[in-house]
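Teaching assistant here, posting this on the class forum so everyone can see the example we discussed in section. The complex has two components, and the goal was to see what a joint structure prediction looks like when all of them are supplied at once.
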Amino acid sequence: MKKHRNIFIAFFRVGMLGFGGGPASIPLIQKEVVKKYKWMNDEEFSDVFAIANTLPGPVATKLAGYIGYRVSGWGGMLSSLIASVMPTVILLIILLRTLSGISEFDWVKGMTAAVIAVVGMMMAVLTWQFIQKAGKGLGWLITIFMTIVMFILLQIIHIHPGIVIAALLILALILPVKSHDKEGEPS
Amino acid sequence: MIYWEIFVAFFIPGILGYGGGPASIPLVENEVVRNFEWMSTQEFGELLAFANSLPGPIATKLAGYIGFEVGGYVGAGIGLFASIAPSLILMILLGGILIKYKKSPRVKRLTLFVQPVIAILLGVLAWNFWNEAYIGIGFWQTAIIVVISYFLIERKNVHPAFIIAGALLYGGFFL
Protein backbone atom coordinates (compact mmCIF):
# COMPACT_ATOMS: atom_id res chain seq x y z
CA MET A 1 0.00 0.00 0.00
CA LYS A 2 2.83 2.34 0.89
CA LYS A 3 4.40 1.67 -2.47
CA HIS A 4 1.19 2.60 -4.28
CA ARG A 5 0.99 5.78 -2.27
CA ASN A 6 4.57 6.69 -3.14
CA ILE A 7 3.92 6.02 -6.82
CA PHE A 8 0.84 8.20 -6.63
CA ILE A 9 2.69 11.05 -4.91
CA ALA A 10 5.66 10.87 -7.30
CA PHE A 11 3.53 11.14 -10.44
CA PHE A 12 1.12 13.62 -8.92
CA ARG A 13 4.05 15.94 -8.31
CA VAL A 14 5.29 15.43 -11.87
CA GLY A 15 1.82 16.13 -13.29
CA MET A 16 1.32 19.29 -11.28
CA LEU A 17 4.79 20.74 -11.82
CA GLY A 18 5.37 19.84 -15.46
CA PHE A 19 4.40 22.78 -17.64
CA GLY A 20 4.72 22.56 -21.41
CA GLY A 21 3.23 19.11 -21.97
CA GLY A 22 4.55 15.61 -21.42
CA PRO A 23 8.05 15.88 -22.92
CA ALA A 24 8.81 18.81 -20.60
CA SER A 25 8.11 16.64 -17.56
CA ILE A 26 10.65 13.90 -18.37
CA PRO A 27 13.42 15.39 -16.20
CA LEU A 28 10.91 15.65 -13.35
CA ILE A 29 10.01 11.97 -13.76
CA GLN A 30 13.68 11.04 -13.70
CA LYS A 31 14.17 13.03 -10.51
CA GLU A 32 11.36 11.17 -8.72
CA VAL A 33 12.03 7.69 -10.10
CA VAL A 34 15.85 7.61 -10.05
CA LYS A 35 16.96 10.13 -7.43
CA LYS A 36 14.17 10.26 -4.87
CA TYR A 37 12.57 6.81 -4.75
CA LYS A 38 15.41 4.84 -6.44
CA TRP A 39 13.03 2.51 -8.28
CA MET A 40 15.50 2.40 -11.18
CA ASN A 41 19.07 3.46 -11.86
CA ASP A 42 20.02 6.00 -14.50
CA GLU A 43 20.77 3.38 -17.12
CA GLU A 44 17.46 1.57 -16.69
CA PHE A 45 15.63 4.86 -16.87
CA SER A 46 17.34 5.89 -20.08
CA ASP A 47 16.47 2.46 -21.56
CA VAL A 48 12.83 2.96 -20.66
CA PHE A 49 12.91 6.49 -22.05
CA ALA A 50 14.51 5.27 -25.29
CA ILE A 51 11.84 2.66 -25.94
CA ALA A 52 9.06 5.08 -25.00
CA ASN A 53 10.40 7.35 -27.72
CA THR A 54 10.23 4.66 -30.40
CA LEU A 55 6.51 4.18 -29.72
CA PRO A 56 3.69 6.57 -30.60
CA GLY A 57 1.42 8.45 -28.22
CA PRO A 58 1.87 10.71 -25.19
CA VAL A 59 5.27 10.08 -23.61
CA ALA A 60 4.49 11.13 -20.03
CA THR A 61 1.72 8.57 -19.59
CA LYS A 62 3.75 5.83 -21.27
CA LEU A 63 6.56 6.43 -18.78
CA ALA A 64 4.19 6.78 -15.83
CA GLY A 65 2.23 3.63 -16.67
CA TYR A 66 5.27 1.53 -17.50
CA ILE A 67 7.24 2.57 -14.42
CA GLY A 68 4.19 2.09 -12.18
CA TYR A 69 3.77 -1.37 -13.68
CA ARG A 70 7.43 -2.32 -13.16
CA VAL A 71 7.51 -1.08 -9.60
CA SER A 72 4.26 -2.56 -8.39
CA GLY A 73 2.22 -4.39 -11.06
CA TRP A 74 -1.17 -3.40 -12.44
CA GLY A 75 -2.17 -1.56 -9.28
CA GLY A 76 0.99 0.52 -9.50
CA MET A 77 0.21 1.29 -13.12
CA LEU A 78 -3.26 2.54 -12.22
CA SER A 79 -1.92 4.69 -9.37
CA SER A 80 0.68 6.35 -11.57
CA LEU A 81 -1.75 6.94 -14.45
CA ILE A 82 -4.49 8.43 -12.29
CA ALA A 83 -1.97 10.64 -10.50
CA SER A 84 -0.42 12.00 -13.67
CA VAL A 85 -3.60 12.54 -15.69
CA MET A 86 -6.63 13.20 -13.51
CA PRO A 87 -5.69 16.35 -11.54
CA THR A 88 -4.99 18.46 -14.61
CA VAL A 89 -7.97 17.16 -16.59
CA ILE A 90 -10.26 18.10 -13.69
CA LEU A 91 -8.60 21.52 -13.40
CA LEU A 92 -9.09 22.15 -17.12
CA ILE A 93 -12.77 21.16 -17.03
CA ILE A 94 -13.43 23.40 -14.01
CA LEU A 95 -11.55 26.32 -15.56
CA LEU A 96 -13.32 26.16 -18.92
CA ARG A 97 -16.74 25.50 -17.40
CA THR A 98 -16.32 28.61 -15.25
CA LEU A 99 -15.27 30.72 -18.22
CA SER A 100 -17.85 29.48 -20.71
CA GLY A 101 -20.57 31.52 -18.98
CA ILE A 102 -19.02 34.78 -20.14
CA SER A 103 -18.51 33.83 -23.79
CA GLU A 104 -21.67 35.64 -24.97
CA PHE A 105 -20.39 39.16 -24.36
CA ASP A 106 -19.02 41.21 -27.21
CA TRP A 107 -15.64 41.95 -25.69
CA VAL A 108 -14.92 38.22 -25.51
CA LYS A 109 -14.34 38.22 -29.28
CA GLY A 110 -11.25 40.38 -28.82
CA MET A 111 -10.02 38.09 -26.05
CA THR A 112 -10.46 35.03 -28.24
CA ALA A 113 -8.62 36.56 -31.19
CA ALA A 114 -5.72 37.71 -29.00
CA VAL A 115 -5.38 34.31 -27.32
CA ILE A 116 -5.53 32.43 -30.62
CA ALA A 117 -2.69 34.56 -31.98
CA VAL A 118 -0.58 33.45 -28.99
CA VAL A 119 -1.50 29.78 -29.45
CA GLY A 120 -0.61 30.08 -33.14
CA MET A 121 2.82 31.29 -32.06
CA MET A 122 3.22 28.29 -29.74
CA MET A 123 2.26 25.89 -32.54
CA ALA A 124 4.74 27.60 -34.89
CA VAL A 125 7.53 27.12 -32.31
CA LEU A 126 6.59 23.43 -32.00
CA THR A 127 6.64 23.16 -35.80
CA TRP A 128 10.19 24.48 -35.85
CA GLN A 129 11.27 22.06 -33.10
CA PHE A 130 9.93 19.08 -35.06
CA ILE A 131 11.66 20.28 -38.24
CA GLN A 132 14.93 20.68 -36.33
CA LYS A 133 14.66 17.16 -34.91
CA ALA A 134 14.09 15.79 -38.39
CA GLY A 135 16.91 17.92 -39.83
CA LYS A 136 19.43 16.68 -37.26
CA GLY A 137 18.43 13.04 -37.67
CA LEU A 138 17.78 12.75 -41.39
CA GLY A 139 19.96 15.54 -42.80
CA TRP A 140 18.57 18.86 -44.01
CA LEU A 141 18.33 17.99 -47.70
CA ILE A 142 16.15 14.92 -47.06
CA THR A 143 14.11 16.84 -44.47
CA ILE A 144 13.31 19.70 -46.86
CA PHE A 145 12.46 17.26 -49.64
CA MET A 146 10.24 15.15 -47.34
CA THR A 147 8.53 18.22 -45.92
CA ILE A 148 7.58 19.43 -49.40
CA VAL A 149 6.30 15.98 -50.43
CA MET A 150 4.32 15.68 -47.17
CA PHE A 151 2.82 19.11 -47.69
CA ILE A 152 1.57 18.10 -51.12
CA LEU A 153 0.18 14.78 -49.89
CA LEU A 154 -1.54 16.20 -46.80
CA GLN A 155 -2.68 19.67 -47.85
CA ILE A 156 -3.13 19.52 -51.60
CA ILE A 157 -4.17 15.90 -52.26
CA HIS A 158 -5.77 15.67 -48.76
CA ILE A 159 -4.68 12.18 -47.80
CA HIS A 160 -5.50 11.28 -44.16
CA PRO A 161 -2.36 11.75 -42.02
CA GLY A 162 -2.82 8.22 -40.65
CA ILE A 163 -2.22 6.69 -44.07
CA VAL A 164 0.85 8.86 -44.69
CA ILE A 165 2.32 8.02 -41.26
CA ALA A 166 1.65 4.28 -41.67
CA ALA A 167 3.42 4.34 -45.06
CA LEU A 168 6.42 6.14 -43.55
CA LEU A 169 6.67 3.63 -40.68
CA ILE A 170 6.74 0.77 -43.18
CA LEU A 171 9.43 2.58 -45.17
CA ALA A 172 11.48 3.12 -41.98
CA LEU A 173 11.45 -0.63 -41.36
CA ILE A 174 12.12 -1.92 -44.88
CA LEU A 175 14.44 0.65 -46.51
CA PRO A 176 18.06 -0.51 -46.55
CA VAL A 177 20.32 0.87 -43.84
CA LYS A 178 23.61 2.60 -44.67
CA SER A 179 26.52 0.29 -43.83
CA HIS A 180 28.17 2.53 -41.23
CA ASP A 181 24.91 2.63 -39.27
CA LYS A 182 24.65 -1.14 -39.09
CA GLU A 183 26.81 -1.67 -36.01
CA GLY A 184 23.90 -1.44 -33.61
CA GLU A 185 21.75 -3.99 -35.40
CA PRO A 186 21.68 -7.27 -33.45
CA SER A 187 22.28 -10.22 -35.76
CA MET B 1 -22.57 5.95 -31.51
CA ILE B 2 -20.89 8.85 -29.72
CA TYR B 3 -18.68 6.73 -27.45
CA TRP B 4 -17.25 4.87 -30.42
CA GLU B 5 -16.52 8.20 -32.13
CA ILE B 6 -14.75 9.50 -29.03
CA PHE B 7 -12.68 6.34 -28.95
CA VAL B 8 -11.70 6.72 -32.63
CA ALA B 9 -10.96 10.44 -32.25
CA PHE B 10 -8.32 9.79 -29.57
CA PHE B 11 -7.16 6.32 -30.55
CA ILE B 12 -5.87 7.55 -33.93
CA PRO B 13 -3.73 10.39 -32.47
CA GLY B 14 -2.53 8.04 -29.70
CA ILE B 15 -1.32 5.41 -32.14
CA LEU B 16 0.08 7.81 -34.80
CA GLY B 17 1.53 10.65 -32.74
CA TYR B 18 5.26 9.97 -32.87
CA GLY B 19 7.10 12.55 -30.75
CA GLY B 20 5.00 12.59 -27.59
CA GLY B 21 1.83 14.49 -26.69
CA PRO B 22 2.54 17.67 -28.69
CA ALA B 23 2.80 15.56 -31.85
CA SER B 24 -0.76 14.41 -31.33
CA ILE B 25 -2.21 17.96 -31.10
CA PRO B 26 -2.72 18.39 -34.88
CA LEU B 27 -3.95 14.79 -35.17
CA VAL B 28 -6.54 15.47 -32.46
CA GLU B 29 -7.55 18.62 -34.32
CA ASN B 30 -7.93 16.63 -37.52
CA GLU B 31 -10.48 14.30 -35.86
CA VAL B 32 -12.22 16.73 -33.51
CA VAL B 33 -12.56 19.75 -35.81
CA ARG B 34 -12.50 18.39 -39.37
CA ASN B 35 -13.75 14.84 -39.07
CA PHE B 36 -16.36 14.84 -36.28
CA GLU B 37 -16.96 18.62 -36.21
CA TRP B 38 -17.42 18.79 -32.44
CA MET B 39 -15.79 22.23 -32.28
CA SER B 40 -14.56 25.04 -34.55
CA THR B 41 -10.90 25.86 -35.19
CA GLN B 42 -11.40 28.88 -32.96
CA GLU B 43 -12.81 26.86 -30.07
CA PHE B 44 -10.00 24.34 -30.42
CA GLY B 45 -7.50 27.21 -30.28
CA GLU B 46 -9.04 28.56 -27.08
CA LEU B 47 -8.99 25.09 -25.55
CA LEU B 48 -5.29 24.74 -26.40
CA ALA B 49 -4.58 28.13 -24.85
CA PHE B 50 -6.08 27.11 -21.53
CA ALA B 51 -4.69 23.59 -21.67
CA ASN B 52 -1.23 25.07 -22.19
CA SER B 53 -1.52 27.34 -19.20
CA LEU B 54 -2.15 24.38 -16.89
CA PRO B 55 0.50 21.79 -15.95
CA GLY B 56 0.58 18.12 -16.97
CA PRO B 57 0.56 16.12 -20.20
CA ILE B 58 -1.23 17.96 -23.01
CA ALA B 59 -2.67 15.02 -25.00
CA THR B 60 -4.57 13.63 -22.03
CA LYS B 61 -5.87 17.05 -21.00
CA LEU B 62 -7.39 17.40 -24.47
CA ALA B 63 -8.77 13.84 -24.45
CA GLY B 64 -10.29 14.19 -20.99
CA TYR B 65 -11.84 17.59 -21.63
CA ILE B 66 -13.21 16.96 -25.14
CA GLY B 67 -14.44 13.50 -24.10
CA PHE B 68 -16.26 15.12 -21.18
CA GLU B 69 -17.82 17.88 -23.31
CA VAL B 70 -19.04 15.44 -25.94
CA GLY B 71 -19.98 12.44 -23.81
CA GLY B 72 -19.98 13.30 -20.09
CA TYR B 73 -17.97 11.31 -17.53
CA VAL B 74 -18.09 8.13 -19.60
CA GLY B 75 -16.89 10.11 -22.63
CA ALA B 76 -14.00 11.52 -20.59
CA GLY B 77 -13.04 8.02 -19.48
CA ILE B 78 -13.17 6.68 -23.03
CA GLY B 79 -11.15 9.61 -24.40
CA LEU B 80 -8.45 9.09 -21.76
CA PHE B 81 -8.40 5.33 -22.27
CA ALA B 82 -8.12 5.67 -26.04
CA SER B 83 -5.22 8.11 -25.85
CA ILE B 84 -3.24 6.29 -23.12
CA ALA B 85 -3.92 2.57 -23.45
CA PRO B 86 -2.74 1.62 -26.97
CA SER B 87 0.80 2.97 -26.64
CA LEU B 88 1.13 1.89 -23.01
CA ILE B 89 0.04 -1.67 -23.81
CA LEU B 90 2.52 -1.76 -26.70
CA MET B 91 5.23 -0.56 -24.35
CA ILE B 92 4.49 -3.18 -21.67
CA LEU B 93 4.25 -5.98 -24.24
CA LEU B 94 7.18 -4.97 -26.45
CA GLY B 95 9.39 -3.35 -23.80
CA GLY B 96 11.85 -6.24 -23.58
CA ILE B 97 12.18 -6.67 -27.34
CA LEU B 98 12.59 -2.94 -27.92
CA ILE B 99 15.37 -2.65 -25.32
CA LYS B 100 17.25 -5.35 -27.25
CA TYR B 101 16.80 -3.51 -30.55
CA LYS B 102 17.06 0.05 -29.24
CA LYS B 103 20.31 0.67 -31.14
CA SER B 104 18.94 -0.70 -34.40
CA PRO B 105 18.89 2.13 -36.96
CA ARG B 106 15.55 0.90 -38.28
CA VAL B 107 13.87 1.21 -34.87
CA LYS B 108 15.59 4.55 -34.22
CA ARG B 109 14.35 6.10 -37.44
CA LEU B 110 10.70 5.08 -36.88
CA THR B 111 10.13 8.29 -34.93
CA LEU B 112 12.42 10.32 -37.17
CA PHE B 113 10.58 9.52 -40.39
CA VAL B 114 7.29 10.75 -38.98
CA GLN B 115 8.63 14.13 -37.78
CA PRO B 116 8.15 15.98 -41.11
CA VAL B 117 4.46 14.95 -41.20
CA ILE B 118 3.91 16.22 -37.67
CA ALA B 119 5.77 19.43 -38.55
CA ILE B 120 3.51 20.08 -41.55
CA LEU B 121 0.35 19.41 -39.53
CA LEU B 122 1.51 21.69 -36.71
CA GLY B 123 2.53 24.39 -39.18
CA VAL B 124 -0.89 24.32 -40.86
CA LEU B 125 -2.54 24.50 -37.45
CA ALA B 126 -0.46 27.57 -36.54
CA TRP B 127 -1.43 29.12 -39.88
CA ASN B 128 -5.16 28.43 -39.26
CA PHE B 129 -5.00 30.01 -35.81
CA TRP B 130 -3.31 33.13 -37.18
CA ASN B 131 -5.90 33.28 -39.92
CA GLU B 132 -8.70 33.24 -37.31
CA ALA B 133 -6.93 35.97 -35.35
CA TYR B 134 -6.42 37.98 -38.55
CA ILE B 135 -10.15 37.81 -39.36
CA GLY B 136 -10.96 38.93 -35.80
CA ILE B 137 -8.46 41.73 -35.16
CA GLY B 138 -6.57 42.41 -38.39
CA PHE B 139 -2.98 41.97 -39.50
CA TRP B 140 -1.11 44.43 -37.32
CA GLN B 141 -2.69 43.48 -34.00
CA THR B 142 -2.10 39.79 -34.76
CA ALA B 143 1.52 40.39 -35.77
CA ILE B 144 2.27 42.50 -32.68
CA ILE B 145 0.76 39.92 -30.32
CA VAL B 146 2.69 37.11 -32.02
CA VAL B 147 6.02 38.94 -31.81
CA ILE B 148 5.60 40.07 -28.21
CA SER B 149 4.37 36.68 -26.97
CA TYR B 150 7.22 34.92 -28.79
CA PHE B 151 9.76 37.24 -27.22
CA LEU B 152 8.37 36.80 -23.70
CA ILE B 153 7.76 33.03 -23.75
CA GLU B 154 10.69 31.79 -25.84
CA ARG B 155 13.37 34.39 -25.08
CA LYS B 156 12.51 35.58 -21.58
CA ASN B 157 11.04 32.27 -20.37
CA VAL B 158 7.92 33.90 -18.96
CA HIS B 159 5.36 31.27 -17.99
CA PRO B 160 2.75 30.73 -20.77
CA ALA B 161 -0.09 31.09 -18.23
CA PHE B 162 0.86 34.75 -17.66
CA ILE B 163 1.01 35.42 -21.40
CA ILE B 164 -2.39 33.80 -21.98
CA ALA B 165 -3.84 35.85 -19.11
CA GLY B 166 -2.19 38.97 -20.51
CA ALA B 167 -3.58 38.30 -24.00
CA LEU B 168 -7.07 37.83 -22.52
CA LEU B 169 -6.86 41.14 -20.68
CA TYR B 170 -5.46 43.00 -23.69
CA GLY B 171 -8.07 41.48 -26.02
CA GLY B 172 -10.90 42.19 -23.59
CA PHE B 173 -10.02 45.85 -23.05
CA PHE B 174 -8.50 47.07 -26.28
CA LEU B 175 -9.80 44.95 -29.15
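For the discussion questions: Residues 182-187 of chain A have pLDDT under 50 and may be disordered. Chain A touches chain B through 95 residues (CB under 8 Å). Think about how each of these relates to the inputs above.
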